[in-house]
Amino acid sequence: MAAETTSVLGVFAHVDTTLQAIRDLRQRGFADLTVYSPVPVEEIEEEVERVRPLSRVRLFTLIGGVTGTATGFFLTIWSSLKWELVTGGKHPVSIPPFVIIGFELTILFGGLATLLALLVLGRLPKLRPSPTYDPRFTLDRFGVAVACPPDRAGDVQTLLAGAGAEEVRR
Questions:
Q1: Of residues 53 and 123, which shows the higher confidence score?
Q2: φ, ψ for residue 12 (rounded to 5)?
Q3: pTM to 2 decimals?
Q4: Which DSSP string corresponds to the chain?
Q5: How many CA atoms lie within 13 A of 168 on its CB side?
Q6: Mean pLDDT of the region 129-154
Q7: Bigger pLDDT: 78 or 128?
């Protein structure tokens, strides 16, 4: 059973105060952070990505690609043997021409698996915005949402306010 969590949101006006809040939260052991930014900021991305685990999208892509390769070779070899397509006196299973189909299906299946992974792992489409989202984050404010146990929410609120948040709310 998952532990109950609550979200605390801090709204910031400047990049440096947002970065300081993220670093302070990391030092105190809070790892489940969502950061909203009106513009891409490299420092924030580096700080957030530092502890983020590797994406599982690449595993979906690998499995899709390998499946595409196997399907491409199976399809071409099976059809050549089934219809006994002897061309120029060569053996029906001639690998070089089949590489093209294998390659094409590798790319196709890998791309489709990547798209599937993005939809499934990203839980897309999102029909409702996150409860911590604020429209100001698309204009000129930064936001840091922290998922934490309810008994530590007060600590997070104090930390965000101490880091320079304009507004802190649950």
A1: 123
A2: -120, 150
A3: 0.69
A4: -PPP-EEEEEEESSHHHHHHHHHHHHHTT---EEEE-SS--HHHHHHHHTSPPPPSHHHHHHHHHHHHHHHHHHHHHHHHHHHT---TT--S--HHHHHHHHHHHHHHHHHHHHHHHHHHHTT-S-SS--TT--GGGGTT-EEEEEEE-GGGHHHHHHHHHHHT-SEEE-
A5: 17
A6: 92
A7: 78
